[in-house]
């Protein structure tokens, strides 16, 4: 069910009313929670599709790692784990799987011989960028009716939200 900002929705063809906000809960935050829930559900599904397009055996959660490596270049696994918000063991498992698929490689960190830097391989970069460009083209099509300033404002607000969640 997807509700509109008035708190009304459609469930199996029937109109339903949402519950009235409790004391101290503002309607704007309930609407925000509802819209983020729908958005995140769709984003997870899209990440899975994009990961499979990069490589059929790539885990959906690994797509975000490709984004980060493409944008920031070589990084330590600990930096990636902190950015994504997972533990070292989870990060090691994901990186090992991506390395076995030929999407990333590791090299010694020149600043600390005990540490390793992870980076996209040429193959990983080509595959990732093709999928990312197709996604970007889809955004352009889906948001063709939007004014560019609205798109920029949405990006700015999402960035602000993401920064706030890092704290």
Overview of the molecule:
Residues 1-17 have low confidence and may be disordered. 59% of the residues lie in helices and 15% in strands. It starts with 7 loop residues before the first strand and ends with a helix. It has six helices and five strands; from the N terminus they run ββααβααββαα. The protein is of the alpha+beta class. The protein has helices at 27-54, 63-72, 77-84, 88-100, 122-142, 148-166, and strands at 8-11, 14-17, 75-76, 104-109, 112-120. Strands 3-5-4 form a three-stranded antiparallel sheet. Strands 1-2 form a two-stranded antiparallel sheet.
Strand and helix layout:
Elements: E1 8-11, E2 14-17, H1 27-54, H2 63-72, E3 75-76, H3 77-84, H4 88-100, E4 104-109, E5 112-120, H5 122-142, H6 148-166
Antiparallel strand pairs: 1-2, 3-5, 4-5
Helix pairs in contact: 3-4
Nearest-angstrom radius of gyration?
20 Å
Query: Helix and strand succession?
Result: EEHHEHHEEHH
> How many strands in all?
5
Annotation field: number of helices:
6
Mean pLDDT: 86
Hey, roughly how much beta strand do the residues contain?
Answer: 5-15%
Distance between the termini: 32 Å
Largest sheet: 3 strands, antiparallel
Assembly status: single chain
Strand adjacency order, main sheet: 3-5-4
Alpha-beta content class? alpha+beta
Instruction: Provide the helix percentage.
Output: 55-70%
Poorly predicted residue ranges: 1-17
């Amino acid at each position: 069910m997807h509700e509109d900002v008035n708190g009304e929705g459609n469930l199996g063809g029937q109109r339903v009313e949402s519950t009235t906000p409790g004391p101290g809960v503002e309607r704007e935050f309930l609407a925000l929670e509802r819209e983020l829930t729908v958005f995140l559900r769709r984003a997870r599904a899209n990440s899975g599709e994009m990961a499979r397009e990069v490589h059929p055996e790539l885990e959906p959660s690994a797509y975000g790692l490709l984004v980060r490596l493409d944008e920031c270049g070589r990084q330590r696994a600990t930096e990636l784990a902190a950015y994504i918000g997972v533990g070292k063991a989870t990060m090691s498992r994901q990186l090992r799987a991506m390395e076995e698929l030929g999407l990333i490689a590791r090299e010694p960190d020149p600043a600390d011989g005990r540490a390793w830097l992870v980076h996209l391989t040429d193959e990983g970069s080509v595959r990732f960028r093709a999928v990312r460009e197709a996604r970007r083209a889809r955004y352009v099509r889906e948001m063709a009716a939007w004014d560019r300033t609205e798109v920029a404002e949405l990006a700015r607000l999402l960035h602000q939200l993401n920064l706030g969640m890092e704290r």
